[in-house]
Amino acid sequence: MTKLADLKARLMQNPEVREEYARADAEFSLIEEMIRARTEARLTQAQLAERIGTTQSAIARLEGGKVSPSIATLRRYAEATGHQLRVGFV
Known about the structure:
The protein is mainly α. It is 67% helix and 0% strand. It is built from five helices and no strands. It has helices at residues 4-11, 15-40, 45-52, 56-63, 71-80. Helix 3 packs across helix 4 (56-63). The model has no long low-confidence stretch (mean pLDDT 91).
């Protein structure tokens, strides 16, 4: 049986897999930051949704990575949690 770490190491030798992995990692990092901001603000998804003017299910989809938010949505999310949005290229 192949260990997960061995499988990942083998797959990461493929440049296309590495590129897609990096892209997914960036998305997951953003989602983690969003959830951290909400929990640090001690807000439920429903409370955050009310502040933004949307539904709890829309926040769940955002935090679940099921939709790609616009910059405007990210800005409203940040402001509702007491943060500022910064977007940049690295």
